[in-house]
Amino acid sequence: MSFITTYLFESKHQPREIKWFKNALSLFIIYKICVYIYLFQELFSEHRFIYLSSKHVNFLIDSAFYLNNNYSLLFAIVIISVLVIFSVLEMINKSNYFIRFFLWLIILNLNNFLYPTLTGGDYLLNQLLLFNIFLTNKSFKNSIFNELSNVIHNLALFGIKIQICLVYALAAWFKMYDANWLNGSAIYDIFQIPEYSNTIFYSLPKWVCTISTYVVLVYQLSFCVLVWIKPIKKYILALGIFQHIVIAFGMGLFSFGIIMIVCYILFLNYDYKSQKKLA
Amino acid sequence: MSNLVKYCVLLCLSCILVFHFVFVIIYASPIKSTNLKLIGYSQKYVYPYFHQSWSLFVPTPKNKNYILIKTQNKSEWKILFPINLTSLSKANFIGSDAISLLFSNALIYELNVLPQKSTIYNLKPTNQEFEILNHEIYSYLKQNNFINDTSKYEILLFSNTYKGQLIYQFKDLYSKK
Lengths: 279, 177
What we know:
Largest sheet of chain B: 5 strands, mixed
Radius of gyration of chain A: 21 Å
Order of helices and strands of chain A: HHHHHHHHHHHHHHHH
Number of strands of chain B: 5
Distance between the termini of chain A: 24 Å
Radius of gyration of chain B: 23 Å
Mean pLDDT of chain B: 86
Number of helices of chain B: 5
Strand content of chain B: 15-25%
Shape of chain A: globular
Number of strands of chain A: 0
Oligomer: heterodimer
């Protein structure tokens, strides 16, 4: 038991990976902001495509729908501008718990406003930003605060990893109930739909699609176990990166593909290796 | 911090983490338990702050759906959705996936409530699904200056299912809402 408390309270784990992860996450948010600006007319203007629906339940729930309930063009511009400032502060490591909390809340509000355009990547971004509130490489002078921030940091880091494993496990669980995934025809069917395909995928032979379907199914089923086994982790992550690049650039679900690759940073263990070398 | 305090802090934080993920699993899993009370609690806890859905491509999309539009001053139908394949794949990183999903989702929701036979509607339907789809199409036409405040337009929804083709035509839709 004392080993666990020492492990969790003494120091913040994976500082290098956390730094890379935060940088990648901030860059991803800046990319999202660029998309919002590029599609401003379609998403936020007077003749926006988004159907505005408000939600009034109680203060707690309404806070997640603040943009919906109080929408105006000016308010949208202000929110996006604040998002730019906060994500830059997060990238240059000048953020604090307060800024990271509002970063999460703003993205949550924007996602609830843009609900019909969301992909799994946007849902995951919300969850990553939630745990990111508690991730920090900074130390406090007060030892009690420092130990508290260490344990919260380490548990939040563990929380993100559990969340990523959960994504794969739940996705596989759903697929186990679908006849098309079990008989191997799912990917072929998906590639026949113009929204998720391109000229190359559309003409892929059926047997390639069948193999791909089973590879995806086995990968999603086994990810949450295999990713913790050090000797095979790099192969698992490499296969995952390949899959998500195909999803991002081939199937057109760019945000989802990229955010999943960003998550893989936390499964690296450079700090562990460098500590081992020093020892 | 004494060891006892550390144990207590660790126990509290671990309980929060376990509680969070148990409720997320109940909320987002494909098996809906018979314990309705538990589902209710999980929905209250998870939505909207921790909402997530991981049914990724389940069920597998099988229908090829199209939206065609015709404005008052034009005689031919124009394909609005899906967006041109080549331009879509080139423009994913600038958010074309978002616009594509916007039309795709609204179209699927509307097709789900339409009858399983081709139909012509001379009056504008009043259901919420059509209102959302019509809003998106109207905004598209308005933004691209295809219509003015008083012009009429028509919508054709085309669904190519494994059972056959279904076509729904919505006539005499006015710009003025």
